[in-house]
Amino acid sequence: MFLHCIEYSGLTVLAYYSYLFKDIPSILLFVELFAFSDEFHQFFVPGRTFSFLDFLADFIGAILCLIVIIKYKEKIYGERN
């Protein structure tokens, strides 16, 4: 579970700084669609299954990462999104 949080935190950082996404909801939507597709494809892999808890861990990792990024930017640059 913890590794899912770490992995999707990394994806969230990449999405945040990619300049493809202009706002927080679009970043979350992208990351969660990616997480869903990752879990969905496991239906077709022998010995693997879709896990809602893994999907939830991905979402929590993305949310926590965005909170850290926003707080960091507020502290360092005085910016608000």
Automatic annotation (TrEMBL):
Keywords: Membrane, Transmembrane, Transmembrane helix. Residues 13-69 form the VanZ-like domain. It holds the Pfam family VanZ. InterPro entries: VanZ-like (IPR006976). The chain crosses the membrane at residues 50-70. It comes from the Bacteria. This is VanZ family protein. It comes from Thermotomaculum hydrothermale.
